[in-house]
User: Fold this.
Amino acid sequence: MTAPSTPFRPFTRLLRITILGREFEVPEDNPVLRCFQYLAPEEVSYGSFCWNEECQNCRVTFDLGDERPTREALSCKLMVQESMRIKAVTPEIRYCLRTLQLKKDE
Assistant:
């Protein structure tokens, strides 16, 4: 018998990030979309995401702190970083994270 698998890459600590104005702790060394799945496991698992850059449903707008440029990326490929601020998300992500009581996109 084998141990159950996990969708997350191995991690030893949680990083603090901000999603639409609210702080969360998510596993290091994981793509942002996996971090969303960590916060809302069922909702993201059943969301309309391809996980390989084709659907574009996981696009986010983010920055890495004060005086850093705001950029867009696909959360399925973007690795989470300490103090990352997710400022805007697609309607698909917003729907999956609806139970987290997020603010409107900044």
